[in-house]
Structures are given as structure tokens and as C-alpha cells.
Amino acid sequence: MASVFGRNIRVSVFGQSHAPAVGVVVDGLPAGFAPDMDKLRALMKRRRPGQNLLSTQRAEADLFEVLSGLADGRLCGAPLCMVIRNGDTRPGDYRELKTKPRPGHADYPAGVKYGGFQDTAGGGHFSGRLTAPLCLAGGIALQLLEAEGIRIGAHVRRIEGVEDEPFDPLAPQLDRLSEGYVRVLDERAGKEMEAAIDRARLDMDSVGGIVECAVTGLPVGMGGPMFEGVENVISSAVFGIPAIRGIEFGAGFAAAAMRGSLHNDPFAFRDGRVVTLSNNHGGVLGGLTTGMPLIFRVAVKPTASIFLEQRTVDLSEGTDSSLSLKGRHDPCIVPRAVPVVEAVTALAVYDLYLEHLKEKKIWS
Amino acid sequence: MASVFGRNIRVSVFGQSHAPAVGVVVDGLPAGFAPDMDKLRALMKRRRPGQNLLSTQRAEADLFEVLSGLADGRLCGAPLCMVIRNGDTRPGDYRELKTKPRPGHADYPAGVKYGGFQDTAGGGHFSGRLTAPLCLAGGIALQLLEAEGIRIGAHVRRIEGVEDEPFDPLAPQLDRLSEGYVRVLDERAGKEMEAAIDRARLDMDSVGGIVECAVTGLPVGMGGPMFEGVENVISSAVFGIPAIRGIEFGAGFAAAAMRGSLHNDPFAFRDGRVVTLSNNHGGVLGGLTTGMPLIFRVAVKPTASIFLEQRTVDLSEGTDSSLSLKGRHDPCIVPRAVPVVEAVTALAVYDLYLEHLKEKKIWS
Amino acid sequence: MASVFGRNIRVSVFGQSHAPAVGVVVDGLPAGFAPDMDKLRALMKRRRPGQNLLSTQRAEADLFEVLSGLADGRLCGAPLCMVIRNGDTRPGDYRELKTKPRPGHADYPAGVKYGGFQDTAGGGHFSGRLTAPLCLAGGIALQLLEAEGIRIGAHVRRIEGVEDEPFDPLAPQLDRLSEGYVRVLDERAGKEMEAAIDRARLDMDSVGGIVECAVTGLPVGMGGPMFEGVENVISSAVFGIPAIRGIEFGAGFAAAAMRGSLHNDPFAFRDGRVVTLSNNHGGVLGGLTTGMPLIFRVAVKPTASIFLEQRTVDLSEGTDSSLSLKGRHDPCIVPRAVPVVEAVTALAVYDLYLEHLKEKKIWS
Amino acid sequence: MASVFGRNIRVSVFGQSHAPAVGVVVDGLPAGFAPDMDKLRALMKRRRPGQNLLSTQRAEADLFEVLSGLADGRLCGAPLCMVIRNGDTRPGDYRELKTKPRPGHADYPAGVKYGGFQDTAGGGHFSGRLTAPLCLAGGIALQLLEAEGIRIGAHVRRIEGVEDEPFDPLAPQLDRLSEGYVRVLDERAGKEMEAAIDRARLDMDSVGGIVECAVTGLPVGMGGPMFEGVENVISSAVFGIPAIRGIEFGAGFAAAAMRGSLHNDPFAFRDGRVVTLSNNHGGVLGGLTTGMPLIFRVAVKPTASIFLEQRTVDLSEGTDSSLSLKGRHDPCIVPRAVPVVEAVTALAVYDLYLEHLKEKKIWS
């Protein structure tokens, strides 16, 4: 069991890649808020498959229906349920996988876990398709946070060897994020990334990358010590996105090579407000927000589904074997992961923010 | 609120650096198990302060008392409560910090969060001292896992520029881990790390590093999709250790630069068992264990408490100011973090393992 | 926030009386189990409105669709989502209620809670209609428990002054439960109850009653001390059914007037098994099952919606006022509450049973 | 596992009757509040054993120590841990119980559950002694609620056949509650109850009773639909008190015999505020508070430990047997249960109140 998230909101994700639908229930949202459905559709469009040759050719309109939680276009306090019907399903593409697990996929451990009863078509509940309901739920959270002055933006920081301009940790350039398929700060880097993805595609291979995310406008003191700190909550949400293999906050792994005198960010007053003069801490100290931008990066592995022939086992025969994948797959999931990282981060941050509001209400 | 962990076990940590005690309550442990208290004391000793010049000079025997949960030396099914009295407290050392927050510490956001009522002495509940009860609870979990054939070991993978031999991802060398202050595979690297720490100490500065952790003997299919996968649960626990700023599983951030054909680990039969021939996936696919060793690394920042003068603010005056720390501090927390990473990982893995047992019991 | 239940399974209920749909997501169900959909439909039919003159005239076929969680007709380990489209909706019937709260209903406190943004049509998320998805989820749990030899049955113990034959606490007569609209042991009592309901209907009034529930086949030692005992878990689930105002286990409130020498149930061996010779404890001691039948009763209040004119306030005018209800309402909800009590009890018992299996697996 | 309560606060209870200590950790309390320790000691005194011949002769001073969570006498935001050392322990009294389970006690199912490894001395973790830490935690909650204008008071409503004056459901007489051993509104009834207890004591028997509890000053709209309504949360807490066998809100089981026209409480304006003119709903509609007094009653069974010889089994011999208890036991637990009901109710209400504050903060 695993598809439930949150303490102050509760997000329950359901669906399989080739089931009738994927969807999400969110309990704990504020009554009275009117979600902007056009904005939500725009976010969904950024994640949508079949956009161009660089992404999977599965054609899904990703139209969603709101089954509950609204009254007269506003959140009414009841759980919000949104569903997306699965359209372009081809379960036949996946028959072989029950006995020949795909390298890099959950097929093998899922088969053991569920005793062979898992839904293998398209990866079932393990499919990247489940990021669609994550975006629906997170898209609402993004709007709720924006109404509180909190903004979240992410970009592709790296694909293969190509680097985008990094976020300025003191003032992330959220207004400069590009609108193209590969969301970047430096559009030339974006074009080079597209070229790198296309090379991998032509090689019947795939590539990974790094997504960098920034959150601005956070209050001071949000989070907590130990197990419900900002890093704990964000990482427990973000690892819910398939293909994420690492996360680092602020200077992250680079901090391991730094001395304290360099890594410590000095405090100072600016315009009557306490700030730090650098932001190696990435906006979090002791699990608590400092009021500085929250910055983190996640590592996205290369898509496991590639068209090159691969070595695997034949579980029915008990022998080593090989596999050539059919189906429709992204040569690089990183560009489509950007809105998902934003959405899932929004769920985590909104959950933390509600906890913070509760504490402020009580403690002052 | 934040100091509670777990779904199948529930760990509740309490205490402040200079309160009467620190301690932990663990609910959900199996009745009948007889913890080896000598072994637990040996683990505590590895974390203990005041071991040598390289660690804080605070002298704490770290003797613990079991208040409940045992009957005739065995776990009796009731919550296990263990406490450590704080001995060598010097609250006077910390008076200045209420108005002059230490760079790199939680002082400032905690002051805002708790409205100035937080316990500032020694960092209060945010202190590294809280890793002592984490080790107590985790030490029990380590023993419970060992009884199931699951072993956890960690080593210092890097301090400043010095690298230890990495774990073999197919067969981590847990039996070769050194017994010295800096736990390593290559004892020469350990000596160089000690020298690096000592240089930082003499410079009144600090250094960070990387800890690598391996878990062997795990069953296949432990964990789950989405939010309660292995990475989610381990990261939400491990970020409970102060000073951790990043975590990566398997190839981790390096995966971002790899192609799928290289990163995907081929399946094969060996001795009638399904294995992978490489282990870039670090033992986890789709949030589920594959039966291969679980490997992850965490980034530890340089100790925030350094003796060099630092820039900060004076909150009572509303002006920029500076600060020279007193007190007793580790020039490098990394060596003492190793047993803590093992212990906290054990809590997370044991929680996942109980979930797994439940599922196996039902689903077969 | 409130519509999420369970620790080992997680049930998330959504929907409003006049929203597009009501439904439920259940996470944590065992892969491989093939639910009997005819049986589930039969349970739904027992709860269905519009059955006769004694229940609401709202005509709902209560056909459900499974959106996810099945593969080839079996549970596949992914969350199970089931939805029921709302058909015969007449939101116009409810316009007046936004300003004139119905006595005995949640209208007034919900209006304050949600700032006037709640869905008032048909009571919104507070409607008895939400018991339909509870029955769907609980119906699956009933089948899972039955496969383990655990049976749950309830009957109408009392309506107004009419009493049914009570359950034999040592051997509840589950096989003798009648199939009619009012589920009873003594069919004559059932007929008298129907007459009592009809009298209330003709008086434009309503009546309440008592439902008695029994669970047989439980293992010994299921549950726990303090907050997750059998009574805690069952009561926290059962109070999720609208109109329940009390619950008592075993001798219940009558125990308050008994002496210990009478109330204590003596232990004895029968056929090599430990039993109690009476069952005032209702199958639970110290929060743990004893292996004897679990027996409890719940008090159901008279339906709040009556057609007699009632005194209320006009919130927009700030004056006292009166109200004559339109719409379609049950003169007595008790008969239709019986399958709901069975279903919700099944959710609670199944959650406890999974915890028990986990403990047995570990502790032996 | 079971000894953890709460969603907004988290209460973790530990200890056994004859372990070194019993205690509690509470996470999530507001920083800055200064608990009145004299008041807390006064509450503890009301629960304390050994007060007179009517209660157990175990002499426990019930002095508690605060191990963490305070700084300068105020809550500091860190988890509050309070412990009570067990003093007058006589484990020898309980040796026989491992093989001869006491009727009405958890001995038998606990032995099965924990495989014989449970702590049998004095009932171990199932002992009424665990209500001491519940009172400590709840005593803090009572003070926090009082500071918000919310008051909780309980009285013995009935012991054997003797009835106290009931609470006026529109205006509970909290200021008239007596200070004696048996807390009542009508002191003559209290004296008669004492006489009834004494008769049971002389008969080497025990009696049960009913405790009635009222909460005033609650806001409107606290709670939620379905599983986290006021009744769900309070009942899941209150059944954590050993010996409670039933709970009813407002008219409770009597509602089952009422017609809707009588049971429905009419709304009216009084002094510009919406009130109900009667209070059969006991202050809760649809799981939400209405602003009227919250009223509920709990059934307390007769103490299971009686000195009359009782029939039981000998588990080691596999035969029927008998048992004459030694040890020190209350002939009636009801008077000492009153402060425990108040304390546990305070934990539940405070948890609900925090949720309410969070919602108000967000939703307005």
C-alpha cells in the first residue's frame, strides 16, 4: 500500500496505465476557493504525451472530469475527485512482459510482490501515466499556494552533458522560464537538449537528466525538526514520481566537499528583514524554512524502456533470455517530468503550509 | 510537530540537548525478542561524543535506562521506552544565541516558529544530541533485522577530498568495515580523513562528507509504488538526521548522465535465482526491492558550529552583527553520523519489512 | 477533513448527494482475490433507496463502475476505485436550506464550517447517499473476511417499541437472518416494525431504532491495548455512518448496573478450546478479541428529515422561522442502515485483521 | 500496536503496571504556554489510588517528572515527556495469572497475542495504572482548552441503582460538581453511591456505573463528516480507557425510541446567536459541533478483579480450574474514572480543536 500522501491534505491516487481510468481524491482542501480550470488544463498539457517525436506516441487528450468536491465551481469542503479516462490503450503490446521482465522496470519485483496478479499492461499502477493524476492534484495545490504568494517553478537543469543556466539561489528566475517543450532558462541549452534527446531516440536508446526546482514566498519557520521537516516531506513526495533516483537541497552533495566557513550562510538585515547573504542551505535549516528561496534538484534516470535489444530472463522457462520492446516510449522523460516535479512539490509544500498555519494560529 | 516516525512501528523521539533527558518510545515491536544490550551499548559507543580530539569535548557516558517494554529481558509487546539522562550540560554557553542566531543552524527559523519560546541551550530539540535516542531505537531495529538475515552497514565514503573504496554494489563488503573512529573499507583513506578533520579543527573550521550505506538480505518486492516506496520511506527517515542535505540511490545523480542502455541492469539467472548483472538501480525498482543489495549515499554538510568569527544579525538590536562561538563542537560530524545512518535506516527498513510480512501473509 | 479511514487498508470516500458521482478508493487490498460482483450487487440492493413506500422515493439504480484496481477480474494490488453515478437528482428541492437549516441535520454547522460554500443539495457530502460507497468498499471487505472464515451479520434489534429476538451472544443466529426489507430473526417482529414505520410515515414523522451486529470466526488476540483496540477502531468507523448516536459492546450500558461476579464471564475448556461460558464481554477484553463472538449494538436516531412543519431560523433575515421539507426521505433509516453497519464493520474488522496477521507473522 | 493517539497532537503512552515507570510523550503542543503544575497535580490526585477503603490499597504518590518539552517553565515546542516512577510494586502477587487467566481481564487474549511474553504483573500495559499518564497528557490539554474558553467536566451519573442529577443539556452545571471522592451534582446521591461501593467491597464483589461528560464553549463547525467527526474521535480516545463498554451522545440509545418530531432540536435565535431549544443532539450534528454543549455518557463495567472465587482455566494443565485473586483492587473504578474521562476527552477535543483552527485559518 502506498498511494496515499499527506497529513493535512490527503491525496489518494488510483488507476493503471490501461485500466478504465486514472484519477485522484484530495481531502482537506479549503472550501470557497475557485480553481482555474483553464490553468489546470495548461499544466496538464505540459505533461501530456504525444506532443512531438521526442515523447511517447501514445495519444491521450488527458481530459479530466470532476466527480465531486465542487459546488458552483468552487471547492465545497468535500473531497475533490478528478478522473481521466484512459483512451489509446493497447494492452496487447505488453503480453510478453509477464514472463520477461523489462530491465530497469518494476515488472520483476512487482510480479513477486503481487504473486503474478499485478496489472502488467503498460506497467499498471507503476506506469508514468500515474503522474497525470498527480498533476491534477498538484495543479490545484499550485493555485492555492499562488493565492498565498508562494510560487513554484522548475526547469531542466541538465540532460546528458548539456547544462542549463542554474537558478540564482538568492532570486530564482521563475519569470524567465521558457514555454517550450524543454523548460529552461537558456533557450539555446534547451535546443541542445532536444538534439541530445533526438540522438538517443535515433539510437533506440534513452537519456536522463536533472530537474531543479525553486519555491519562493515561503514563510519563516515552516516545517519541523526530525521526521516532518521540509526535506523529509518533500523527498517522501518527490520519490513518488517514477524514475527519480536522488534529491539534494541547497548546495546538496557539493556541501560534502565544503568547509563550514564557506558553507554557512551569513545572516544580515536587508530592508528590515533577516536574510542570508548566500543560500547554500537552500532555504531550509533544521528542517525549517528560513524565508530564503527553497532550492532542490532531483536526478531523473534514463527511461528504462528502450528499443535496443536487452538481456533479461524468461521466468516461465527459468532461463536467461532477451527482449526487444514494442510499445510507445519517451526517449527522455525529463522534459515531461518538470511539471510533475512542480505539482508534487506543491502537494508537499501545501501540506507543510497548512501545518504551519495551524501552528501560527495556535501559537500566537 | 515532527518527531514521530513509522507506520508499522511508531517511533516517538523526545528530549533537548540540555533538558533532563533525551529518549525514545517505540511501539509495535515483536514480543519475545531479547535485545542484546551489550551490542546496543557498542553501537551507542560509536556515536558517543568526547571520543577524541576530533569530536566534541562534551563528555556524555550515554548510559540508557529502559523504562518500559521489557519483561524478563525480552520485549513484551508494550511500547519500549529508553531514556538517557543528560549529564555534562552547560546551558550558560548558549545565552547569546537567543538574539544572535548561528549561521547554518536552526536558531533563527526556530525562534520565529516557536515565538521565542524554543529551548536554545545546545540547539534544544534540534541538537545532534537527539541522534542518541535515534541510535537506541535503531539499534533494536538493527538486531531485529539481523535475526531475519538482513544486514545494514555504512562507511564514510568521502571527507573533503579524501575518498574511501566504494561499496561493491553487487556484494557490499560489510565484513571488511573498519572498527576505528572513521569507519571505512580502506584504512589508509581513514587515516587521511582523520588528518583532514584535524586540519579543519586547527583552522577553527569544519568539513563535511558523504556516507554510503548498504542493506543486504532483503526480500524481493518489499516497498510499494508511489508514496511508500523504499526511497520515500528511507529518505523521510534519513532527513531526520541533522546535517543531511541529499540522498541518492544506486547510480543516483550519476544516472542523470547515463544512457538507458548502460543504466538498465540486465536480469539473469544465477544459481536458480533472478539477479541483475550490474546494480545501477541500487536494489530498488519502482519503489520495490529487487533482492539485490540496497545502496544509497547521503551528503553531510560541514558542521555549522565553527570557532571562526562569523557574520550574523542581532535580533534584539535589529542590526547586523558578528558571533564567535563558544561551546563544544565536532569539527566534522561525518564519522559519528555513520552509526546514526545505520540506525535510522534500520528503523525505515524494519517498518517496510513489517509491511512486507503483512502483505506476504495475506497475499499467499 | 475526515473521509479517510484505516491503517492497513486506506479507504477514501468521495461524492455529494447531487454531484456527478459518489465513490470510494481502497488501497491495501490483497492481489489475486476475485471479488464476486453479483454478491456485491446483492449487498448494494439491500441498501438501495426507492425499494418501497417505507424508504425514500429517490430512484437510484446504484450501478457501480470499477475504474481501477482489477486486472482480469481479480484485485491486482493497485488501489481499487469504484464509482456510482448520481442519477435522479433534483437540486431544486434544496434551495431553501442554505438559509433555513433543517433541525437535526448538519446544514447549520456545515454552513459555518465551510463559510457558506458547502454543497447543500441533498445534504452534500453529509448525505446518507455516501453510505453507498461505504457499502461498496465494505462489501469487498466482507468477502475477504468470509474467505478467512470470518462472518458479519446485523439485524434490526428494535424500532420504536418493537423488539426483535436478540442475538445469542454465545452463538449468534447469522443463518437465520431474514431476507426481507427489515432484516430480523423473528419475522413477526419485522412485520410489526414495518407497521410502526408506516404509522410514522402517515404521521409525516420518523422513527429510530437499534441495530445489533455480530462477528464470528475471529482469531484470539486481535486488536490492541489503549487506542487501537477493537472497540476504538470499530466505533471510529461506525460513527462514520450518519445518524448513529451510540455504540455498546457486549452487555454495554447494562454492565453499568451489574456486579462483577455476574458480569465476569468464566473461562472453561470446551472441545480443547478456551471459551467463556457467558459473553457479557461481547468478545473483547482489554481491546483484544477473545475468540468468542463479537457483539455490539448501535443506536440510530429517527430520520431528521420529516414532513411536519418545524421551527428553525432564517439565517439571511436573522429571525426565527419555520420550515416544511420537500424532497424524498425515509420515515425510518434503520432497515437500510443494517447492510451499512455490516459493511463498515467489515472495513474496521478487516483493518484489524491485517494488523493481526502482521503481528502473528512476526511474533511466531 | 495501539498506544498512540492523535492527528494534530500525537500522544504516545508507555509503561507497565510493575515496570520501572509509566509515562507519556506529547508532540505538537503550542510553544509558550506555561502549564500550571499545581493544577496538574490536583487532577492526578483525583485519580490516585489508595485514597480510601473504596479504592485499591496500592500506595502510589504518582509524582511525575518532566523529562523534556519545557524551557523556563513553558512549553518550548519540543515533545513533552512526563514520567511517573512505579513505587509500590509487588510482582509476586501475579505469578499465578500466567497460567490462570482472570475472568474479565485481558490476560487470556494477551497471552495468545504476545505468545506468552506479555508482562503479566498487574496486567502489564493493560493495567488501569496506564490511566495515570493519560491524565498527565490530558491534564495539559484541559489547561490549553480552558485558556480558549473550553471547559470539560464529568460526574458519576450512576453507580449500581443510584442516580445522580443529570447534566442540564442546555447548560451543564459544571460549577456545581462536588469535590469529594465520588464527583456528583447531588451530594446525597454521592453518599449513597459510596454506600453501594462499600457493600460490594464487603461482598468481595464489584460494581460498575455510568460517567456523564460535558464540554462547553466549543466553536461551531468543529469536527468533520464521516470518519473524523466529533463522535468518531472522542469514542476512539475514550475506548482507550480500560473498562469502558459503551458510549452515547446526546439522547443516545434513548433516541432509538423517539420520533423525529420530538428528537429534532428546533433552531432559534437567542441574543443574536443561533441555538437549539433542546439538546437531544448533544451538541453534534453530522459529526460537527453546533455550539451547544457537547454531552456524552460512557458505561463503565464492574471491576473485573474481585475477591470471590471464580471459575477459569489452567492453561498449563489444559483443565478447568478456579481462581481466588490476591493483590489490591478497586471494588468500583467509576469514581476514579471520572478525571480520566475528562482528561482523555480533553486530548480528543484538543486534537479536534487544532484541526478546527487550521481550517478556520485557511478557509477565511
Account of the 3D structure:
The structure is a homotetramer of 364-residue chains. With 364 residues, chain A is of the alpha+beta class. Chain A has one domain: Chorismate synthase AroC (Chorismate synthase, AroC fold, 4-Layer Sandwich), CATH 3.60.150.10. Chain A contains seven helices and 18 strands. In chain A, the strands form six sheets. The first copy, chain A, has a five-stranded antiparallel beta sheet, covered by helices on one side. A five-stranded antiparallel beta sheet of chain A has the order 9-8-10-16-11. In chain A, strand 2 and strand 3 form a beta hairpin. In chain A, helix 1 crosses helix 3. Chain A is globular. Chain A starts with a strand and ends with a helix. The mean pLDDT of chain A is 92. Chains in contact: A-B, A-C, A-D, B-C, B-D, C-D. The interface between C and D is large, with 111 and 111 residues.
Summarize this structure as a short list of keywords or feature phrases:
364 residues, five-stranded antiparallel β-sheet, homotetramer, globular
Q: What structural category do the secondary elements of chain A indicate? A: alpha+beta
Oligomeric state: homotetramer
On the 0-100 scale, what is the average pLDDT of chain A? Answer: 92
Name the CATH superfamily assignment of chain A. Answer: Chorismate synthase AroC
Pick out the low-confidence regions of chain A: none
Count of discrete alpha- or pi-helical segments spanning 4 or more residues of chain A: 7
Domains of chain A (count): 1
Q: What's the helical proportion of residues of chain A?
A: 25-40%
CATH topology of chain A: Chorismate synthase, AroC fold
**Morphology of chain A:** globular
Q: Cα-atom Rg of chain A, whole angstroms?
A: 21 Å
